[in-house]
Design brief:
four-stranded mixed sheet, Potassium Channel Kv1.1, Chain A, 36% helix, 18 helices, 3 domains, 19% strand, flat
Length: 480
């Protein structure tokens, strides 16, 4: 049986690093006032690192009195000290390091080809310093967006930005965001923010890239506008101008008319003032701006909207598709949890989407009804009375389920098959799709298609305690 004595080996090599007798390499790290020389041993560096094995045998080095002199001005002394600890002993402590130092270590470990170290530091940042990542998303993205191996951290930042877009745009580091990153961000469909706010911060970002622009826009001349136009030229087509209200177009976009390409501006003008579908612009309002929910992520909202339009699940919407605005009208923690409260808020609404998160579960249920859940308002047609309630007719109703708020792998949809019994309205229920297919009664959710009024794709018969309900009114604001 082999005997292993790593502990003493690590201690001895640590002493060799702290008291470097017989060193033959001096590595100069840092720049300006933050510099330091490290005395190291070429045999250890070459044995532990393919990067140094190549670098110390190349023209990158210079020799003085038989001493190898190597310079790394792009690394900080703190960062390189951790790297040497890893090289010599396989040990280092991140618990007392700042987020900035750990991020520096991540970038350095990628440059120096330490794959094991890179994976560890990336995982540590995500698992132990997530709050810091969220607070410094722009800084993190600037550092890692070119690193092919850093997809986990990139995705972590993007997921946070999609849900907290305003917080990201308002951060101190946003004005220094790399233009390539900004370009990619503006292409994302799932940003949860009003488009006019994106426009406002894009203008601020563009001004920050031009130090010569004074803060008082009234003092700008033609050269100033040209400078801003040149800076923002590639970004303007990515702004969903059709998602900005006519008032905001007039108040906040028109003052920058000269920086908008003429063909784009003419399209917007015809869209807002003549209701003409744009000929050039192909980007519809962002899905993330349509729904703000603690229950589902924007990707699922996009899927539900495609279901409403009877499109393929992952259909990519265009400007010619119906545009929706989903307005929160009932939230149990805000409006009180009861059938009566739900009905008071939702009765008479013409189109409704209900979302339900099951208590202590990843299970999410929902349903869409273009005729609402009860009370047709002015019209009393389209129903018949049965079992002390009213059945309402709709051929476009559906119910659905998900296993997680951002996972579309296990999504299921069941469309109505008996359109005469799409909705059952009775005072004992907040809502009832098909008399029991999906029904809220008190604090309980019933999922049981025993009446066969909907497809049986959910394939479940269950009773759940409801933890959270979000209901949205759907308004089609292009096609009347």
């Amino acid at each position: 049986m082999a005997s292993i004595f790593h502990l003493n080996l690590s201690k001895d090599l640590s002493l060799l690093l702290d008291y470097p007798d017989d060193y033959n390499v001096i590595i100069q790290v840092g720049e300006n006032q933050n510099t330091k020389e490290f005395r190291t041993h070429s045999v250890i560096l070459r044995a532990r690192s393919s990067y140094f094995k190549s670098a110390l045998s190349s023209n990158w080095i210079r020799k003085k009195d038989n001493m190898i002199i190597f310079s790394k001005p792009d690394l900080t002394p703190t960062c390189f000290d951790m790297i040497l600890r890893y090289i010599y002993t396989g040990e280092f402590d991140l618990t007392k390091q700042s987020g900035e130092n750990i991020l520096d270590l991540l970038v350095a470990s990628d440059e120096l080809l330490f794959e094991e170290l890179f994976r560890h530091v990336q995982d540590y940042l995500i698992e132990e310093r997530l709050d810091w990542i969220h607070e410094n998303s722009a800084l993190v993205l600037n550092a890692v967006f070119r690193l092919d191996n850093c997809k986990k951290l990139q995705d972590c930042c993007l997921k946070f930005i999609c849900k907290n877009t305003l917080l990201f745009l308002s951060s101190k580091s946003f004005p220094s965001l790399n233009k390539e990153i900004l370009f990619d961000l503006l292409k994302i469909d799932d940003l949860q923010i009003e488009e006019i706010i994106i426009w406002d911060h894009l203008i601020k970002w563009g001004i920050n890239q031009n130090p010569g622009l004074v803060s008082d826009k009234a003092k700008w001349n033609n050269e100033n506008y040209e400078a801003l136009k040149k800076t923002l030229n590639q970004f303007i087509p990515l702004i969903r101008l059709v998602g900005i209200s006519r008032v905001d177009i007039f108040d906040k976009v028109l003052p920058y008319k000269t920086i908008i390409p003429k063909h784009i501006y003419e399209d917007i003008e015809e869209f807002h003032y003549k209701s003409v579908i744009p000929k050039i612009i192909i980007l519809p309002p962002r899905t993330g701006s349509l729904i703000k929910s603690n229950i589902i992520e924007p990707i699922l909202a996009k899927i539900i909207i495609n279901w409403i339009d009877k499109k393929d699940t992952m259909y990519t919407r265009t400007i010619n598709d119906p545009l929706y605005k989903l307005e929160l009208i009932y939230l149990n923690i805000r409006d009180g949890f009861s059938n009566k409260s739900f009905r008071n808020k939702c009765n008479g609404r013409m189109a409704n989407l209900v979302l339900i998160k099951v208590k202590q579960s990843n299970k999410i249920f929902g349903g869409y009804s273009p005729i609402g859940f009860s009370s047709l308002g002015e019209s009393e047609e389209g129903y018949f009375v049965e079992n002390n309630g009213r059945f309402y007719n709709s051929s476009n109703n559906f119910i659905f389920s998900f296993e997680h708020n951002s996972d579309n792998k296990y999504m299921k949809i069941s469309r109505v098959v008996n359109s005469n019994k799409a909705i059952f309205d009775n005072r004992h229920c907040g809502f009832d799709f098909g008399m029991g297919s999906l029904c809220m009664s008190g604090y309980t959710l019933y999922v049981n298609n025993y009446n066969e009024n909907y497809e049986n794709n959910l394939n479940i018969r269950a009773i759940y305690t409801i933890a959270e309900i979000e209901t949205f009114n759907v308004e089609d604001y292009i096609k009347k």
